[in-house]
Amino acid sequence: MMRIYGEFVEPLPPSGEELSISFFPDPTAIASQWRSQPLSADVLADYLSRFFTDPSGDRDLRAKRAEIQCAVSYIANELLENAIKFHHPDSVQPISIQVRVRGDRLIFLVSNTIDRFKMERFQEFIEKAIASDPHELYIHQVEKNAADESNNSSGLGYLTIMVDYMARIGWKFETLPNDTPLIRVTTMVQLFL
């Protein structure tokens, strides 16, 4: 089984530059993976910022570089947080994040493994996000979260990426080989420069 939602592009054009980080799951070490996710996001942001330099010291380019670095750090952090939070504890598949430089855009690919119940709930959120105006859904979700602090599957991070960074998001769900009941979900975010 494979199912694609949103703006998931395949195959990707050849990459100019890319950086990948993988976490191999260990249910006893999930807390340390959780703590390292902001560090991983910052590493990706620092690495990518080197592609947006100007030896002449152009202020506009420096500001653009800082803006891109901040966006990469935020987006990578949100994607990793979700991947680690919802990764199935019995999976031996890695949690991975990859950022690719493609001319006019940066492409983030984040993969993790979930069970069918989480897949169904996630797909319901995705279908709602695709069918709705992202700005209206964002405001609705903020209000809903304020009323119910225990709501831990709001999708607010995805909505923030769509609204604040005008990024395009897509998802791919794939069954894993060997008849495992787990599903590999890959989230793609395209950030246009």
The shape is globular
Query: Which percent bin holds the helix content?
Result: 40-55%
Q: What is the ordering of alpha helices and beta strands?
A: EEHHEEHHHEE
Low-confidence stretches: none
Let me know the average pLDDT: 84
Number of strands: 6
Strand content: 15-25%
Structural class: alpha+beta
Q: Termini separation (Å)?
A: 34 Å
Spatial order of strands in the largest sheet: 1-5-6-4-3-2
Using the CA coordinates, give the radius of gyration: 17 Å
How many separate helices?
Answer: 5
Largest sheet: 6 strands, antiparallel
Explain how this protein is built.
With 193 residues, the protein is α+β, with helices and mostly antiparallel strands. It is 45% helix and 25% strand. It is built from five helices and six strands; from the N terminus they run ββααββαααββ. A six-stranded antiparallel beta sheet has the order 1-5-6-4-3-2, with helices on one face. A hairpin with a 7-residue loop joins strand 5 and strand 6. Helix 1 packs antiparallel against helix 2 (59-86) and helix 4 packs antiparallel against helix 5 (156-164). The protein is globular, with a radius of gyration of 17 Å. The protein starts with a strand and ends with a strand.
Descriptive keywords:
alpha+beta; 6-stranded antiparallel beta sheet; 193 residues; 5 helices; single chain
Which secondary structure elements does this structure contain, and how are they paired or packed?
Elements: E1 2-6, E2 17-23, H1 30-49, H2 59-86, E3 95-102, E4 105-114, H3 116-131, H4 134-147, H5 156-164, E5 168-175, E6 183-192
Helix pairs in contact: 1-2, 4-5
